[in-house]
Amino acid sequence: MQPSPKELFGQYVMPTYAPGLTLVRGAGVSVWDDAGKEYLDFMAGIAVNNVGHCHPAVVAAIAKQAGTLMHCSNLFHNELQPRLAQKISRLALGGKVFFCNSGAEANECLFKLARKWGSMDGRHEIVTMKNSFHGRTLATMTATGQTKYQKGFEPLMPGFAYAEFNNLDSVKAALTPATVAVLCEAVQGEGGIVPATPEFMTGLRALCTEKKILLFFDEVQAGIGRTGKWFGFQNYGIRPDGFSMAKALGGGFPIGAAAVTPELSDVFQPGNHASTFGGTPLACAAALATLETIEKEDLLGNAVRMGVRFMDGLKALAPKHACIQSVRGVGLMVGLVLNVPAKPVEAKLRENGLLCIATGDHVLRFVPPLVVSPAQIDQALAVLDRTL
Ligand SMILES: *Cc1c(COP(=O)(O)O)cnc(C)c1O
Fold first, then answer.
1. 116: pLDDT confidence band, cut at 50, 70 and 90?
2. For position 1, what pLDDT does the model report?
3. How far apart, in whole angstroms, are the C-alpha atoms of residue 293 and residue 251?
4. Ligand 1 centroid to 386 CA: how many Å?
C-alpha cells in the first residue's frame, strides 16, 4: 500500500507546520479533501485565493504562459513584467515596482531600499509595531513585533525598534536620530485582525513627513482587495512612501512585489538588489489575470458588501452565544474574538465543513475568497451558529 501524504510528510518534511486535512481539489469558495468531503473555505490559503480556487481566467493565463515562456531571467526583458508593474503603479503611488516571490522578500526589499536611501545621511533604523507580522527571514522575523517568533533564533538583526500599534506617542518615543523608516500594517492580520485607527494612520503620516522618515505599509495580507480597497492604507486616505504585497497577488501562484513613490523609484541601481525568480513571465501572467479578474468582477465592491453581511451576521450571533466577545475587521478581513480558546473551535468548525484560522489565543480569523456569495456567507454563519 502507498503511504499516505500524512505518513510521507512525517518522514520527509521538516515539521515547521502541523497540517490537518489533505486537500485534493478546489473551485471558487469550496475545497475537497481526500475523502470527498466539501468545505467552505473561509481561509483562502491564508488570504491568497482572493479570486477563489482555480479561477478559470487565472488557470487559462498560467496554462497559456507555461507553454510559451515560463522563465527567462531578469537579464532579458519579458513582455509581461513591465505591464504588471504599470498596473500596480496605477493602483497606488504611481512609482516603480520590484518583483520577488514572497511577502518576506517584499519586506526585505523595503528594508534594503530604506537603508540605501538613509545611507546618504547615516540613518538605518526601522521602527515596526508590536503584535505585527512581517515574515520569517532573519530581518523580517526581527521586524515582527512578537517575541514568540524570535525565540531561539537570536541574535536578532540589528537596526529595528518597536512601538505600540495605534499609539502615536509610542512611535514618537521609538524614533532616534538614526530612524529611517516606519513599517506598519493597516490591519494587523496574524496579530488577530486589528485595524489601525484613522487617527493613528493620519498621525503616522504627518509624523513621518515632518521627520523626513519613510512610511511603509506591509500589504501582504490586507492588500489586493481584501479590505474592499486595492490596498489597506487606501481606507484611510493616506499615501505611504512604499508598500509590500504578495499572498493574493498571483491568485494562488507565488509572486511578491514592493512598490514605491516616484521619489524613491530610482534608489536602487543595477546590482543593488535582485531575485532570480522575481517577475517571471509565468508569475506576471498569473498576477495580471488576477488583477483583471478583481476589476472585471467588481470584487472590491463584493468584499465591502459581503464583509458587512458577514460582520452583521456575526454580531447578530453574539447575544445567542456567550463565548463571543466582539467582532472586528475591514472588508473581508474579519476577526471573531472569543472568550474561550479559539483552536478547539477552529477544529469543530472544520468538522462541520467550515475552514478558518485561529490566530492569537482567542481570535478566529476569516479571510474568504472575495468571490464569496451572499448564500455562502449565510451558510458559514449557519455553521458558526450550530458549532458555537
Ligand atoms: C503572510 C505575511 C507575510 C509573510 O509572507 P510570506 O509570503 O510568507 O513570506 C508578511 N506580512 C504579512 C502582513 C503577512 O500576512
1. very high
2. 78
3. 10
4. 32
The boundaries of every CATH 3.90.1150.10 domain in the chain are 5-54+298-387
Q: How far apart are CA 226 and CA 213, in angstroms?
A: 27
Give residues with Cβ within 8 angstroms of 236, minimum separation 6: 186, 196, 198, 201, 202
**Record: fold of 5-54+298-387:** Aspartate Aminotransferase, domain 1 (3.90.1150)
Tell me the mean pLDDT in the region 242-267: 98
Rounded to the nearest angstrom, the distance between the alpha carbon of 316 and the centre of ligand 1 is: 32
Assign 131 a pLDDT band (cuts: 50, 70, 90): very high
Contacts for 331 with CB less than 8 Å, ≥ 6 apart: 225, 226, 227, 228, 229, 303, 304, 307
Q: What are phi and psi of 251, to 5 degrees?
A: 60, 25
Residue 246 Cβ contacting ligand 1 at under 6 Å: yes
- The verdict on the CB of residue 134 being under 6 Å from ligand 1 is yes
Closest CA to 107 of 253, 212, 260, 229: 260
- 247 is known as an active-site residue: yes
Residue span(s) of the chain under CATH 3.40.640.10 come to 58-296
How much of the chain, in percent, has pLDDT values that exceed 70? Answer: 100
Q: Residue 123: CB within 6 Å of ligand 1?
A: no
DSSP type of residue 263: G
Query: HSE on the CB side for 216, CA within 13 Å?
Result: 31
* Fold exhibited by the domain 58-296: Aspartate Aminotransferase; domain 2 (3.40.640)
* Residue 337: strand, helix, or coil: strand
Contact, 259 vs 96, CB < 8 A?
yes
- Return the C-alpha cell found at 355: 475552514
Asked whether 307 and 332 are in contact (CB, 8 A), the reply is yes
